[in-house]
Amino acid sequence: MGKPMIMGRKTFESFPSPLPGRRHIVLTRDPHWQADGAEVAHSVDQALKLAAAEHVAVIGGAEIFALMLPKADRIELTEVHAAPDGDAIVPPFEDEWVETAREEYSADGERPAYSFVTLERRTA
Q1: Residue 113 has pLDDT above 80, yes or no
Q2: Per-residue DSSP letters for 65-83?
Q3: How high is the pLDDT of residue 100?
Q4: Do the beta carbons of residue 78 and residue 116 sit within 8 Å?
Q5: Which one of 4, 49, 88, 90 is most buried, counting C-beta atoms within 10 A?
Q6: For residue 70, what are the CA distances in angstroms to 12, 20, 21, 22, 96?
Q7: Given pLDDT bands bounded at 50, 70 and 90, which one contains residue 92?
Q8: Taking the CA atoms of the chain, what radius of gyration do you get in angstroms?
Q9: Who contacts 40 (Cβ-Cβ below 8 Å, separation ≥6)?
């Protein structure tokens, strides 16, 4: 809550409406795209400049994650312990990342078990 979020157009369009309490910065190649509740950026640097915050949440999709990863120093990851059908997979994080925290949550009814994991970029 409260942090600006950077996302791709498809991620933004998957919401029924903008999420309350957060800025929605949409990174898109389409120079004409706009939507109520969205601030539009056309480059990583422009999105970060719009965010103008120490901490920014990058919430998807896969291409946006890949573009932003080189600039990240921490990843807050939710691991859902299920294998749903889908077409996007986050690849494993390389050796430059170290797990610094993990919270495990059990399955509850229809909701699968999940973990909140914090990864931090290794320093030399």
Answers
A1: yes
A2: HHHHGGG-SEEEEEEESS-
A3: 97
A4: yes
A5: 4
A6: 22, 28, 27, 23, 11
A7: confident
A8: 16
A9: 25, 26, 28, 33, 34
